[in-house]
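Help needed: design a sequence for this.
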């Protein structure tokens, strides 16, 4: 039996949005129309494909096997067949998927969302954060359009990249710390209790490698895979932490914290945008890459007077 390509389009949307209603909104269809398409898919494959788990449509084992093949087919349709139609941001109804860390969301999304809303009112953005192996697969399949940040061990033979700006590391310490005032000595750094963020493949891994290279021994009081809670914990304790400058800049606006230079040298990391060669000529992805480059190339948004969001941000304290 020949499978209607429109049915694969529905399956792709259910994978992307995790619900019948979300898929219907993305496709501009009614919910009964998506449900009917799912029923036809189930009949074709002889499998439920998706089952409801709470509010989410969870894929079956067979559906998981079909996820990447379906994504490749739909990526080919989007990037190689419909490309000839061009991309008009004022009229386009498209959802772009961008891979960002939690820190990347905090730094980049405020400006990017505002810029896209003004230039392309019907375009939507979806932020995801996947591991490096999965990221390369999904960029290849076309299910992720762009990755922004510092990513190590990426396969550069199949990816394009563009450098945005350098990111240095700083130490974050609370105002009124009993021992650390306006400068941070190596003795104070080694003597303090530390919060350490561990994110394999991200910029923080570069810093941790440097600490090991120098043979520095710290007292690690807390280890976490996330940045977001760390400044809150530092502000209410005598613990210190090392973070990318943008995190320090943002949280000093919100909490009684100070940013101090490190007492040893660590090379800054380059933040970049990455895209797969299959999307290199896609007019929509070209437009999205230009938005990112225009906003962030050569400047950290959290410290830029040209940032639509952060330049006008008013501290809460």
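Sure. Designed sequence:
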């Amino acid at each position: 039996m020949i499978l209607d390509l429109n049915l694969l389009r529905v399956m792709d949307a259910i994978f992307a949005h995790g619900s019948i209603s979300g898929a219907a909104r993305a496709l501009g269809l009614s919910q009964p129309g998506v449900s009917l398409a799912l029923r036809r898919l189930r009949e074709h494959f002889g499998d439920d494909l998706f089952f409801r788990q709470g509010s989410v449509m969870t894929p079956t084992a067979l559906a998981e096997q079909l996820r990447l093949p379906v994504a490749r087919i739909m990526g080919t349709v989007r990037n190689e067949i419909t490309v000839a139609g061009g991309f008009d941001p004022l009229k386009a109804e498209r959802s772009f998927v961008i891979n960002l860390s939690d820190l990347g969301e905090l730094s980049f999304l405020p400006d990017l969302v505002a810029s896209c809303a003004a230039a392309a009112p019907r375009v939507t953005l979806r932020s995801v954060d996947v591991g490096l192996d999965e990221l390369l697969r999904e960029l290849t399949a076309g299910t992720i359009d762009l990755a922004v940040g510092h990513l190590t061990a990426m396969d550069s033979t199949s990816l394009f990249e563009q450098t945005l700006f350098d990111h240095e590391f700083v130490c974050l310490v609370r105002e009124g710390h009993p021992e650390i005032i306006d400068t941070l000595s190596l003795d104070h750094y080694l003597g303090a209790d530390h919060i350490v963020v561990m994110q394999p493949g991200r910029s923080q891994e570069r810093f941790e490698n440097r600490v090991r290279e120098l043979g520095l021994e710290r007292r690690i009081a807390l280890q976490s895979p996330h940045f977001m809670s760390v400044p809150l914990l530092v502000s209410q304790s005598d613990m210190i932490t090392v973070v990318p400058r943008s995190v320090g800049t943002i949280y000093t606006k919100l909490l009684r914290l100070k940013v101090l230079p490190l007492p040893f040298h660590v090379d800054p990391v380059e933040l970049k945008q990455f895209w797969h060669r299959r999307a290199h000529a896609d007019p929509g992805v070209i437009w999205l890459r230009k938005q990112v480059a225009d906003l962030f190339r050569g400047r950290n948004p959290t410290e830029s007077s040209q940032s639509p969001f952060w330049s006008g941000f008013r501290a809460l304290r």
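The domain at 88-166+269-317 is CATH 3.40.190.10 (D-Maltodextrin-Binding Protein; domain 2).
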